């Protein structure tokens, strides 16, 4: 049992650092950048002026209640808490670890769901 302790701790640290690092490059709000293309106008027909615009839109959220992050965090926290203490202290540490892990897992998933994606849209002025 003690041989698995460093392995479990290493996994928990790696998962939390990966989630934090992945969530670090997030931006909020909607931004747009336009790249205009030139169009030639002839004297007889009026051609629309078209250009590409890069728009940041929120990504689709599949787990609105963040159940997966909460559950995985609780399991990881409970496993880590179970490695601490002895007797009734071990039970308290397991419960505290599960609660802390559930909170951390929920926050990590929330950060992942708040990301935006960049989409290029073609717009034309009449």
UniProtKB/TrEMBL annotation:
The keyword Nucleotide-binding does not apply. Residues 68-109 form the Glycine zipper 2TM domain. Residues 1-23 form the signal peptide. Residues 28-47 have a biased composition (Low complexity). It is found in: Membrane. Keywords: Membrane, Signal. InterPro entries: Bact_OM_lipoprot/Surf_antigen (IPR051407), Gly_zipper_2TM_dom (IPR008816). Residues 23-48 are annotated as: Disordered. This is Uncharacterized protein YcfJ. It comes from Agrilutibacter niabensis.
